[in-house]
Amino acid sequence: MIFRLLPAFLVLPSLVVAQERAPAPAGAALLTRANAPLTRLPAQIPAKGPTALHIQILLDRAHFSPGIIDGAWGNNAARALAFYADPGGNARLLGRTPPGLSTVDKATYDRLVRAAGAKPLLRRYVITKADVAGPFTEIPAKVYDQAKLKCLCYSSAAEAIAERFHTSEALLSQLNPRVQLKTLKAGTALLVPNVLEENVASPMDTVIVSKLIISKSGFWVHAIDAAGSIIAHYPSTLGAGYDPSPTGKLTVTYVARDPAFHYQPKLFADVADSEPEARLPPGPNSPVGRVWMSLSRKHYGIHGTSSPGTIGYAASHGCVRLTNWDVLQLSDFISPGTPVEFH
Questions:
Q1: Which region among 14-18, 75-79, 104-108, 269-273 has the lowest average model confidence (pLDDT)?
Q2: Which residue in 172, 43, 189, 166 sits closest to 102, CA to CA?
Q3: Which residue of 93, 171, 203, 243 shows the fewest CB atoms closer than 10 Å?
């Protein structure tokens, strides 16, 4: 659902980490440094740069999502690393969040590398005709103007490519300083994070999720197996203030890919009930993104977003919002009846 920024007293505190003095390298230099394994451990993770990018991609490939991969070490990545470093901690089952980490020790790093596999963390991707074929649509700000569109599609090929590789257009620009992202053409080679893409087979295809645990205070979702272990971790945005997320035990009732969105003003505390309802078309820039997983409490669900950079740093209207790529992955191993616990 449509997000709003948290009031100042609810904004998550910034993680205090050491700053890199030198400007972040671009292109080939960043490729070399981000792909290079860490050899001096434990290692401090600077606030931005190749080390932060390196660990973010490892976490993403280990299914402990840092949210958007942007080469900046923030709360989402710090929490993902903390849970990965202590997989047996009781916090994972109770909705509690351990302090975020800005260092990685050898044991944790070695496990991350094994989980991520041997492929380079950055790779070259050649733009195809399908990538630039569209349709691409500029998304108007007003809901009722959005309802007039045929699709809440990507606004550009660059936005589509960035989301495909779990990153931002800003990082794509840094990785590819000589490429004009606004005028991408088939045949152009781009340096991109080497993440697991949609519809690509992986060991995650066979996992069985026993339940989901959602932390209202920690802003995350865990997929848990029958032994109580974390299969996957996802940063999330939840409700706050007049639009809180639910509490207690629910279940998933159904899963819909690329859903239309029924806009109902009476469900939003900051919208007048007298405003008319509207039906918004499907698309990645829909308020619910690529997936809607309905929960057993009416009007609540787990869904994607049109603004992946806000995940973990904004408030929803009560639902649980993930990046489109995370909610797509989660939907692959969720089925009707899966228990969901809010803590």
A1: 14-18
A2: 43
A3: 203
Contact 290, 324 (CB under 8 A): yes
Structure tokens given for 77: 């990545």
Residues facing residue 309 across a β-bridge: none
Three-state SS string over the chain comes to CCCECCCHHHCCCCCCCCCCCCCCCCHHHHHHHHHCCCCCCCEECCCECHHHHHHHHHHHHCCECCCCECCECCHHHHHHHHHHHCCCCCHHHHCCCCCCCCEECHHHHHHHHHHHCCCCCEEEEECCHHHHHCCCCCCCCCHHHHCCCCCCCCCCHHHHHHHHCCECHHHHHHHCCCCCHHHCCCCCEEEEECCCCCCCCCHHHHCCCCEEEEECCCCEEEEECCCCCEEEEEECECEECCECCCCEEEEEEEEEECCCEEECHHHCCCCCCCCCCEEECCCCCCCCCCEEEEECCCCCEEECCCCHHHCCCCEECCCEECCHHHHHHHHHCCCCCCEEEEC
Query: Taking each helix axis from N to C terminus, what angle separates 75-85 and 50-61, rounded to the nearest 10 degrees?
Result: 60
Whether 236 and 221 have beta carbons less than 8 Å apart is answered as yes
What is d(CA 45, CA 127) in angstroms, rounded to the nearest whole number?
32
Question: What's the CA angle centered on 146, arms 140 and 148, to 5 degrees?
Answer: 125
Angle between helices 106-116 and 75-85 (to 10 degrees): 100
More confident: 31 or 38: 38
| pTM assigned to the model | 0.88
Quote the CA–CA distance of 238 and 318 in Å, as a whole number: 6
Q: Is the pLDDT of residue 17 over 70?
A: no
Contacts for 155 with CB less than 8 Å, ≥ 6 apart? 136, 137, 138, 139, 285
pLDDT in tens, 188-236: 999 999 998 877 767 677 788 999 999 988 999 999 999 888 999 999 9
Match 């004009």 to its residue by tokens. Answer: 180
